[in-house]
Amino acid sequence: MFKKIIFISLIVISIGFPTRLFLLGSKSAEMHPTVGIQDGVLTPCPEKPNCVSSFAKETDEKHYLAYVALTESPLQQIKEYAKKMNMTLEKESEGYLHFTEKTAIFKFVDDIEFLYIASEKKLHFRSASRVGHSDMSANRKRMNAFLEMLRSK
Hints:
By secondary structure, the chain is an alpha+beta fold. The radius of gyration is 18 Å and the shape is elongated.
């Protein structure tokens, strides 16, 4: 009897967990993201460790990644690179880009933003997951890939 309960429990868990993740991914695609420019800066990261931003405090090791000093706007290069990475451009305005990217399996949606402040010659950015707690450093890795691309140009 005990073995039967364990067996049934394992079946429920093995079906239920992936199903829940799939449904969360579908839900994240429909969620209205908290993105954009507020008082001249990108929306702050939430407390969860699934977000990185150049506007986070330098002492906030889980969220902070340094801005990039550039003499001219890199937004066209960023758009080209994002297209190669199959990201979707959601919004573009002067000095600002907002992309989304879906994870391969469960279709979780991440928001990626760039803000080039021409007067300061600084590129700021933010990358955040819409759902979940941890992203296993996916947003940090994504932003480091963008920064590496910009440094190589």
